[in-house]
């Protein structure tokens, strides 16, 4: 297994902020907007690097930016203290107003880390508001800062994606509308659960194929599909691109078929990407791309996580797709992505949770 260290969140040690009252209100603003507090000249020199990292284009199949950026002068920093995503950026000791501000909020120990040890990114959650991420980016020079950002681009992007996903799950999760009966059935029959919102249907159970399909908004123009597939007595050696693409196509050809049974879902050739990730503490391969009907009559985005579970010796494939031809789909695919992260095997549940769900089966 490959090391997952580069995916872990770095600590914000030795930074001291004066954040005011302890009673903080929830952060506000658009989920995909990052406010960048920087002087105009320094922002101009680093804008292309910021866009390369945070403005990454995804295809759904429409091109959509992961995040939009908006520069704010340090003189207006109070206007963004309630926002969800904030970057404060300047070379340390450059003499700019933003750089001068940084010298007032970080102590001498951290200053030494920046100037002599190569540290350049520091993150603080819930600084001025709940569920907020404030990221400080600084280095001895513009060139060094740019180089560090590009080298660590995956981690920088992950910070904002991770907190965005956590905020989204809080907004999606509501125990009042959770379908405990379906979750209990999945746990009893298959040894795992996933969060089932009130408007999802258990569309298909194929026990002989180890396949379960959850479906939302059936036969509308904004469908969401989630499937869980697993392979018993599997080997982690199967975790590779070729296996994932082949196995997904096999499942969707069998179960994701048009009403007339004349076409089926398959992976499209373009914009396909697979990378190593930390999925809830487990090494996994994450695949993002586009699906299409085999007759080319439609398509949309999908996200897939495939991993080996050591306790059960199963390979799990968790997959979410969107069919919404009339809409932008970035936020929709994020919603199914967040739902996939609620997946847990029986071994990962507390006994209280297991007892609660088993009681549901008796009712």
Give an account of the 3D structure.
The chain has helices at 40-54, 97-105, 108-116, 142-151, 153-172, 180-190, 241-255, 330-340, 351-362; strands spanning 33-37, 57-59, 63-65, 68-72, 85-89, 121-125, 133-137, 192-193, 200-206, 211-216, 223-231, 265-267, 273-279, 282-293, 299-309, 314-323, 344-345. The protein is an alpha+beta fold and 363 residues long. The chain has two domains: 5-169, Chitobiase, domain 2 (2-Layer Sandwich); 175-362, Mog1/PsbP, alpha/beta/alpha sandwich (Protein Transport Mog1p, Chain A, 3-Layer(aba) Sandwich). Strands 9, 10, 11, 12, 13, 14, 15 and 16 form an eight-stranded antiparallel sheet that branches. Mean pLDDT is 91; it is low at 1-21.
Pairing-aware structural class of the strands and helices? Answer: alpha+beta
CATH hierarchy class name of the largest domain: Alpha Beta
Give me the CATH fold name of the largest domain.
Protein Transport Mog1p, Chain A
Give the helices and strands as they follow along the chain: EHEEEEHHEEHHHEEEEHEEEEEHEH
Average pLDDT value? 91
Second rung of CATH, namely the architecture of the largest domain: 3-Layer(aba) Sandwich
Q: Unreliable stretches, pLDDT < 50, 5 or more residues? A: 1-21
Count of the domains: 2
What's the total number of strands? 17
Helix content: 25-40%
Strand portion: 25-35%
Q: Please give the count of helices.
A: 9
């Amino acid at each position: 297994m490959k090391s997952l260290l580069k995916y872990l969140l770095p600590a914000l040690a030795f930074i001291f902020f004066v954040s005011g009252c302890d009673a903080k209100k929830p952060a506000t603003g658009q989920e995909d907007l990052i406010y960048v507090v920087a002087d105009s000249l320094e922002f101009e020199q680093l804008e292309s690097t910021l866009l390369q990292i945070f403005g990454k284009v995804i295809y759904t199949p429409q091109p959509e930016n992961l995040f939009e950026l908006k520069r704010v002068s340090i003189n207006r920093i109070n206007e963004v203290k309630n926002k969800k995503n904030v970057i404060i950026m300047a070379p340390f000791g450059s003499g700019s107003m933003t750089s001068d501000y940084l010298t007032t909020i970080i102590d001498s120990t951290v200053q030494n880390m920046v100037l002599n040890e190569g540290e350049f990114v520091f993150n603080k959650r819930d600084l001025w508001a709940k569920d907020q991420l404030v990221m400080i980016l600084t280095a001895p020079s513009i060139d060094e800062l740019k180089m560090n950002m590009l080298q660590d681009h995956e981690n920088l992007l992950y910070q904002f994606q991770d907190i965005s996903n956590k905020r989204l799950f809080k907004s999606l999760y509501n125990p009042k509308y959770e379908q405990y009966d379906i979750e209990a059935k999945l746990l009893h029959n298959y040894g795992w659960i996933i969060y089932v919102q009130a408007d999802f249907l258990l569309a298909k159970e194929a026990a002989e194929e180890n396949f379960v399909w959850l479906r939302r908004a059936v036969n509308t123009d904004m469908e969401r599909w989630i499937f869980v597939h697993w392979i018993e007595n599997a080997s982690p050696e199967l975790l590779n691109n070729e296996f994932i693409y082949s196995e997904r196509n096999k499942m969707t050809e069998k179960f994701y078929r048009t009403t007339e049974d004349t076409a089926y879902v398959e992976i499209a050739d373009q914009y396909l990407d697979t990378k190593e990730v930390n999925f809830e503490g487990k090494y996994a391969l994450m695949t993002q791309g586009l699906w299409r009907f085999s007759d080319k009559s439609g398509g949309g985005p999908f996200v897939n996580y495939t991993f080996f579970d050591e306790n059960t010796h199963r390979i799990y494939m968790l997959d979410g797709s969107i069919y919404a031809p009339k809409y932008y789909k970035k936020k929709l695919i994020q919603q199914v992505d967040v739902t996939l992260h609620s997946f847990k095997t029986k071994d990962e549940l507390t006994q209280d949770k297991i007892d609660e769900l088993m009681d549901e089966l008796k009712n």
